[in-house]
Automatic annotation (TrEMBL):
Belongs to the UPF0102 family. HAMAP family: UPF0102 (MF_00048). Transmembrane segments: none annotated. InterPro entries: Restrct_endonuc-II-like, tRNA_endonuc-like_dom_sf, UPF0102_YraN-like. It comes from Keguizhuia sedimenti. PANTHER family: UPF0102 PROTEIN YRAN (PTHR34039). The lineage of its organism: Bacteria, Pseudomonadati, Pseudomonadota, Betaproteobacteria, Burkholderiales. This is UPF0102 protein Q8A64_02095.
Length: 118
């Protein structure tokens, strides 16, 4: 049984697809998508040259209300960190990692590296 998705969910899904295509074109390999745990969710986990990236994707139709990047508020950052900590428990020796944000406002994609302090 499939559930109906809201317009906002469809926009988010389209943004994740766009972000993933972009990262793959930059040589990254998808490790996991929509990783869920009790503490939160990570949209994309990708890897390249031994570096693991936890990527939050935000898509907005326009830059109104501060735009996509501004929507990654401290509470969201805390949930991302908690989810990443949970994810990294699967490694005996965790690889180097960082938090990036891909903000999409309209048709403009902005890749913000090291967007969240560890």
């Amino acid at each position: 049984m499939s559930r109906l998705r809201t317009a906002q969910q469809l926009t988010g899904q389209a943004g994740e697809e766009q972000a993933l295509e972009y990262l793959l074109s930059q040589g990254f390999r998808l490790v996991e998508r929509n990783f869920h745990c009790r503490g939160g969710e990570i949209d994309l986990i990708v890897q390249k040259d031994g570096m693991l990236l936890f990527v939050e994707v935000r898509k907005r139709a326009s830059g109104q209300f501060g735009g996509a990047a501004a929507s990654v508020i401290p509470a969201k950052q805390a949930r991302l960190k908690k989810a990443a900590q949970f994810y990294l428990q699967r490694y005996a020796d965790p690889p180097p990692c960082r938090f990036d944000v891909i903000a999409i406002d309209g048709n403009q994609l902005n890749w913000i590296t090291n967007a969240i302090e560890e």
